[in-house]
Amino acid sequence: MTSRFIIATGLLLAVFGAACSSSDSETQSQPTTQSQPATQQTNSPSATDSKSPVAITPTSSTPTSPATTSTIFVAPEIVCSEEVSASQIWGRDPLSDSTCREDVPSALSDPNNPRFQKLVEPASIRSGGPTPDGIPSIDNPRFADVSEVEELDEAEPVVAVSINGEARAYPIRILTRHELVNDTLGGVPVTISYCPLCNSAVTYDRRAANRVLDFGTSGSLYQSSLVMYDRQTQSLWTHYDGKAVIGHLAGAQLDFFPTQIIAWGEWQQDNPESQVLTGEIDGRSLEVYGSNPYVGYETSSNLLSPGFQSEPIDERLAPKERVIGLRTPEGEAVAIRHAYLREAQVIELSFAGLPLVVWNLPGATSAIDGRFVYEGQDVGTTGVFSALIGDIALTFEPAEGGFRDRETGSLWSASGKATDGTYEGAQLTPQEYLDTFWFAWATFNKSTTIIPSNTDI
Hints:
There is one protein chain. The chain is mainly beta. The protein has helices spanning 3-18, 172-178, 264-270, 338-344, 438-444; strands spanning 46-48, 53-55, 117-118, 125-127, 143-145, 157-163, 166-171, 180-185, 188-195, 200-205, 207-208, 211-212, 215-222, 225-230, 236-238, 243-247, 256-257, 260-263, 275-277, 322-327, 333-337, 346-351, 354-361, 381-386, 388-389, 392-393, 396-399, 402-405, 411-412, 418-420, 434-437, 449-451. 10% of the residues lie in helices and 30% in strands. The strands form eight sheets. A six-stranded antiparallel β-sheet has the order 3-16-15-14-13-4, with no helix packed on it. Strands 2-1-22-23-24 form a five-stranded antiparallel β-sheet, with helices on one face. The model is unreliable at 1-71 (pLDDT under 50).
């Protein structure tokens, strides 16, 4: 893939973004209590096939991490500024539900500032083509009821998030053009983030460093992964691990909420009362958003550009092989090979002391393959859930239209909801994970184990 194509792709997204009018979000009340995402305790992982447990043997070590500073993060004092600092040459104003803009140096305009702590080398953060906010975040998201949406194909992927009983779907056909949505869900200020190049979707709690942050796209990449900036201090944050890596807030860490990429038809069926992000944010219909700016990227063995990489890629797997990544805040990490999961459909394992079920249901397309997001190859819907219902650890097997637990014969959907049988109406507890490409997972989780560890599938 030539550099000319890469530049053209960046310009395409920048031109599309410049035409989008994304206004500040409406004022929303700031939550007074912190709702913590599900976390897991560190433990040695083990895996099973669908019938009996087997031990995981960690694979060989990988190249060393980028230079980091292992200091404990202490949130700096907030110093509001009514005017844009001379160093803050880029960036939109903070949202009305967020903390104020601060009078501090900007890593967005000068990542080499000697005053900054740097968790990665500034030279490893490289321009992806667009300027800051050239791919505009969605700051005033608008939603429609599931029953009102007709433009989406049943097999096309949406990013699904549920917090405090409120559930929403964010079509990837929109996220490929905007990458970030600053929202409030279940009373919690969140950012939904999708990185097309590393094929990953995550949801962050925007409350960090004693602030309520909101985020924009920097136009830059770290090891081919999206780099964000916060509008309060213009520090730089890596999408993949939700960490501020350069700037006033370097060392700050965002909390994650479980996030699933699921086929629209599956989401409709399980969540008929939920809402869906629409294209009304910029006057475009969902239908117009259906084209894919990354045609063929899913099936190509190449990254978009080797120039976006500043360090070698872990060679244990092919760079663009899909994996399902599980991680803990303490650094424990496991990568389940997508091809292995697709064949087995159900994998049961113990990770961080919790019995988990990982499954894949055919019927969801890749958004970064065909000319349109609904024309991509079938990669299925992946889900990761606690296997516990109360004190009972269930075991599962594939079934027509979903998965069946062996204990009661109840039928479960891809989103972890029991649709028939003894447990009808019950919901498995979702776990934070990433359905992503190996090169990105290995960059941020260098000591990860692999399931299965052998190279032949």
